[in-house]
Specification:
The chain has 270 residues and is an alpha+beta fold. Helices cover 19% and strands 32% of the residues. It has three helices and 18 strands. The strands form four sheets. The protein has a six-stranded antiparallel β-sheet. Strands 11-10-12-13-16 form a five-stranded mixed β-sheet, with no helix packed on it. The chain has a four-stranded mixed β-sheet with strand order 5-3-6-7.
Length: 270
C-alpha cells in the first residue's frame, strides 16, 4: 500500500485511514476455533510524534467512530456466515465471529520510529496479552513494524480515567515541531523510547535525552503531581537540577528541562 499523498499544511492521516487500518488488522488477526472465530479486540495504534500531536484532541472521536465500524463489520461477517451456512452441507458448522472484551479497546501512542504519515497497529485477542499469543502487527506503508516491545497488561476498563478527563497538559517543541500532550492517566513516562522501552511521551531528540528520561505521577486522592528523574544527563525543574531517582513535588505550573535539549511546559488542568 502506498503512502497517503502528502499535502503541505494538511494532516497526512485521516480518521478514515486509521479506522480502515483497524478493520484490516482485526480481520488479519482472527483466531479460528472449531465453532467460532475470535477477533482481536484490543488495539494499540502507534503514530509518529508529529501526527500524534496533530490528532491529540480528537482521539476519543476516532475511537467512537472506529468502534461503530468494528461492530458493523462483525455483524456483516456473521451475516455472511449465516448466508454461507445455508449453502453448505449439514455436517459443516457455522462459526460465529466474536470478541473476548466487552468492547473494543483502542489506545494511541506516539513512537519516533514510525514514519510521518504512517500508522502501525498492534492487536491482541483480549486486554491482557498472553506470552503465547502476541497478536498481529500491521502498517499502512509496506514496511516491517518498527515497534518491537510488547505492551504490558492494560489497566482494566473500570479503572481507566474517562476519555474526556484530562489531568494536565504538557507543551514542548522537539525535532518534529511544537507538540501538546494531554495527561489522562495517573503516571506517564517521558523520553526517546526505543526497543523494550514503552513510553507515553516519545520525544524526537538526540541521545542526550534518555530513552526513559523521567516520570510524572499523579496522586488521585489529592490531585497532587510528582516528578522523578531517571536520566543519564539530568532533568531540571524551574532551573534546579533534580536528584536522580528521588521523587519531588511538581507545582501546578512548571518548566521542566531534559538535558538542556527539550523543555516541557507542564500545567495542571482544573
Amino acid at each position: 500500500m502506498t503512502r497517503p499523498e502528502e499535502r503541505p499544511g494538511q494532516l497526512r492521516l485521516s480518521g478514515n485511514i486509521i479506522v480502515s487500518e483497524l478493520l484490516r488488522n482485526m480481520e488479519l488477526g482472527k483466531f479460528e476455533m472449531s465453532y467460532s472465530v475470535l477477533l482481536p479486540c484490543s488495539f494499540t495504534v502507534y503514530l509518529n510524534p508529529s501526527d500524534h500531536g496533530a490528532l491529540q484532541g480528537i482521539f476519543e472521536h476516532i475511537v467512537e467512530d472506529a468502534r461503530q465500524a468494528l461492530r458493523a463489520r462483525v455483524v456483516e461477517l456473521n451475516g455472511s456466515s449465516a448466508a454461507g451456512f445455508a449453502r453448505k452441507t449439514r455436517t459443516r458448522t457455522r462459526k460465529d465471529h466474536k470478541i473476548a472484551c466487552t468492547d473494543w479497546v483502542i489506545d494511541f501512542l506516539s513512537h519516533p520510529e514510525i514514519p510521518v504519515g504512517d500508522v502501525e497497529i498492534h492487536s491482541e485477542l483480549n486486554e491482557t496479552a498472553e506470552p503465547e499469543f502476541r497478536g498481529v502487527k500491521t502498517t499502512l506503508v509496506d514496511r516491517e513494524p518498527s515497534v518491537k516491545e510488547e505492551r504490558t497488561a492494560r489497566v482494566p476498563a473500570n479503572q481507566r480515567p474517562t476519555a474526556d478527563k484530562v489531568f494536565a497538559e504538557i507543551r514542548y517543541t522537539d525535532n518534529s515541531g511544537p507538540q501538546v500532550f494531554l495527561m489522562t492517566k495517573n503516571e506517564i513516562r517521558i523520553g526517546r523510547g526505543g526497543e523494550d522501552q514503552p513510553i507515553d511521551v516519545a520525544l524526537s531528540a538526540n541521545d542526550e535525552v534518555s530513552r526513559e528520561h523521567l516520570r510524572i505521577r499523579r496522586n488521585p486522592a489529592t490531585n497532587l503531581f510528582f516528578i522523578t528523574d531517571l536520566s543519564t544527563n539530568g532533568t531540571w525543574l524551574q532551573n534546579r537540577r533534580l536528584r536522580k531517582g528521588d521523587e519531588e513535588a511538581l507545582s501546578a505550573r512548571a518548566e521542566i528541562s531534559l538535558a538542556n535539549v527539550v523543555k516541557l511546559a507542564f500545567q495542571v488542568r482544573p
